[in-house]
Every structure is written in C-alpha cells, then in structure tokens.
Amino acid sequence: MTKDANLEKITALAKRRGFIFPSSEIYGGLANVYDFGPLGAELKNNIKQLWWDRFVHKRDDIVGLDSSIFMNSKVWEASGHVSSFTDPLIECKHCHSRFRTDALPHENLKQCPHCGEKEGFSEPKQFNLMFKTHIGATEEESNDVYLRPETAQAIFINFKNILDTTRKAIPFGVAQMGKAFRNEITTGYFIFRMLEFEQMEIEYFIHEKDWERFFDHWKEEIITWAIEVGISKDNLRFREHDEKERSHYSKRTVDLEYNFMGDFKEIYGLAYRGNYDLAKHKLMYVDQQSNEQFIPHVIEPSFGVERTILPILLDAYHEEEKRIVLKLKPRIAPYKTAVFPLVQNKEEIVTKAQSVHQNLVALGIYSAWDARGNIGKRYLSQDEIGTPYCITIDYDTLKDNTVTVRDRDTTQQERIKIDQLQEYLMPKII
Ligand code: ATP
C-alpha cells in the first residue's frame, strides 16, 4: 500500500469514527478548516496535556501562560508581522487563482494547476497572512485587530509581568498553547495546513553566551517528544535552514520534518531568535545578583498540534488480515479501556460490568462502554480507534470476580481479578 493511499484511509477513518470532520459540512464545507469530533477532541486534549505535563509541570525552569487571542495592533507592528509576515504570491493570468511561488511544482511554472491554461503568472506580490477584523461598531482603522498568527508573541509582551510575579531567573522559559490563525493560500493535505490551528510554543530566555548549548538541548527535546508521543523515528529528520531561508533576526533555524508520502515537510520549528523580539518591545532583564541589565536572547521551539496528530495517525494505522488497528500510544489514545458485558440480557453481568466501567472512570482511566453486538465486532470497533485494552465481564466473573483483558496490539487475553485491574492497567497506560 502506498503512503498516499494511507492518507486517504486515515482521512476516511477520522471522519467515520469521529476524530476529524470537515468544517461546516452540511453547508458545503469550508476549505482547510476542520472540526475535531468526540474522539479527536480526546486525542487532541491528551496530546496537549502530555506536552504541558512534560514541558511545564515536570520542569522547574518553565512556567505557563494563557493569553488572549486579541492584542493591541501595536504588538504586531512592533514584532514586524504587519510589514513582513507575508508569502510571495503569483496569480494565474487566465483564471486569477493565486499560488505561493514555492508551492508550484517546477514543471508547472507555466501551467496553472487550477485551470490548466498556460497564459503564465503575474510577478510575485507579498500577501500578509494575518486575518484582520475590528473591535466595536465602527470600522475605523484605530479599531483594527488581528487574529494572532502565532502564540509566541504574547509571551514576549508578558515578559515583565511574568518576571514580576514569579521567582524565575534566566535561564527560564514560558510555554503557551492555543489557537493561531493564518490566511494560508496554498492548500495542504488534510489537516497539515489549516487556516485555524493550534500551536504549543516555548520561549526559552537565555544569556547570549549560552545559545548554542540551549539550542542543542531543545533540538534533542523536540525529537524526543515527537518519538514519545508516537511518531516513528524513521520518518523524522532535521533540516537546517540556510541563510537565505532564515528570518533576518534568526541566527539558526532547524525544522523537524516528517516524511509525508516521500515528501519531507516541517512539523516543528526551532529558532534562535537572538534578542530581536524583546528589543522590539523594549523589554529588559535585571540580574538580581549582579545587577547586570541586558536584553535576554531566546530559543523558540514551536510545535503544531495538528502537525503532531497527522503523523501520529499515519504511523499508528495498521491493516492486518482481519482488522484495522490504530496502534496509538496508550497515553494519548482517546479511551484507555473499553468495558463489555458479554451479554445484554443477564442483569447481574450488565450491573457488574457497569460497576467495573464506573470504577475505571473514577480512577481517571477513561473508558468506553459497549454492550451491543458480538464480542468480536466490539473488539474490532475498539481496535480501529486505538483503545489499548478491552475488558469483558462474563458468566465466570459472577463466580470468581475475574474479567478478560484483551490487549489491542497482541490480541492476547488474560484473566485478571477485578480488584487487581488498577494495578495491572496503570503502568501500561501512563
Ligand atoms: P510552513 O512553512 O509549513 O508554512 P511555517 O514555517 O510558517 O510553516 P512556523 O511559523 O514555524 O511555520 O509555525 C510553527 C509551527 O506551527 C509549525 O512548525 C507547524 O507545526 C505549525 N503551523 C504553522 N502553520 C500552520 C498551519 N497553517 N496549519 C497547521 N499548523 C501550522
């Protein structure tokens, strides 16, 4: 099976099982915008929680921020986004469709991918990617606001607030995750390039002399995270930006790329931004011990949530002889367990199964409940959404208080005592 076919299968599975729906579908859709369904919402939340846990809770040198999406427009003027957060676009002289110059295949330099005509394209024009709207009833320029195109900028403008309210000293980081918006012209496959997406970003503030050491540290951290969350190491590579590609303030940028159908594309970015942003916002740092005043430098690891989900789904998807199985890491799987009463018409079995199910949920082990159809079909249904363990309550349970626990990946079954379930499951799912 080609990877292309794999992408189609993932897209279909995501829709069929309630992971990801095209937006506004009943009104004909909205290109490059997607909704996360019941299982997609769980998967996404699990990834975000894991990220927060790893980079905020488990590290004493990083604190979190949850800023608003709207900010004073002066923020984006100072940061350079109003003048230069742009893509070069060319327009087909025949149908007027616009394309990013770097997105056109070389052989298509004359032919429009949209209408197929060969009339050629206009000279490239810079097109700003920020969505603009306005606050209040009048459309005066002074009321203009932008939907943030990245979460990072709010970290810089809160730098002083964070220093004043925490006991952090350099080196330290601030993490934030949330929605970002970009008026992308080039369409991407499935959820790779969206107009509205989520980022998880860290600004790690350092002394200039330490930048190389921390850059290497974060390079290691981002790939370790990607592998831990379930992306196959074999499909990942780093790509160093050359001088032409790098933003003028960046001294070094590296992308972590994933092999999408033979085409390596950025999933995460790592940039050494010097002290560009804090300098632009006129923010300083005073060392409490030496009283030295300086503008800290910053290393920025930037992770896309949807660009985490797509590779995870592609790598987790397996077709076996008799089943489709999503081999998701248990920690991020929407359900950790599914509980089945063997039959629906024996009250004691259903009641027992309900109590096992409720107890698991109370322990924080999110569990699915399924009482319909034969057990084989129920297993297949859970395999397809990546539930690591299925627990069946049967006639023997009523005699000896044991249940059958079936492992998603091996399909092996074990008999476990109900009062030992927690001990059995916990190390496997966290
Ligand atoms: P690209 O070159 O693919 O447009 P970028 O270099 O503009 O990406 P950054 O500005 O570095 O991306 O954004 C940081 C991260 O945010 C990216 O690594 C990616 O994970 C995510 N991201 C950026 N744009 C999008 C988008 N349109 N849809 C989904 N995720 C995105």
From TrEMBL:
Complexes and interactors: Homodimer.
Keyword Coiled coil: no
InterPro entries per UniProt: aa-tRNA-synt_IIb, aa-tRNA-synth_II, aa-tRNA-synth_II/BPL/LPL, Anticodon-bd, Anticodon-bd_dom_sf, Gly-tRNA_synthase/POLG2, Gly_tRNA_ligase_bac, GlyRS-like_core
Domain Aminoacyl-transfer RNA synthetases class-II family profile, residue spans: 8-330
GO biological process terms, semicolon-separated: glycyl-tRNA aminoacylation
A GO term, aspect molecular function: ATP binding
Protein name listed in UniProt: Glycine--tRNA ligase
Gene Ontology cellular component list: cytoplasm
Keywords linked to the UniProt accession: Aminoacyl-tRNA synthetase, ATP-binding, Cytoplasm, Ligase, Nucleotide-binding, Protein biosynthesis
Major localisation: cytoplasm
Binding sites annotated in the UniProt record for substrate: R100, E150, F197, E198, Q199, M200, E201, E300, P301, S302, F303, G304
Catalyzed reactions per annotation: tRNA(Gly) + glycine + ATP = glycyl-tRNA(Gly) + AMP + diphosphate
Binding residues for ATP: 182-184, 192-197, 266-267, 304-307
Signal peptide: none
Organism: Candidatus Roizmanbacteria bacterium RIFCSPHIGHO2_02_FULL_37_24
Enzyme kind, highest EC tier: ligase
Any single Pfam family the record assigns to this protein: HGTP_anticodon
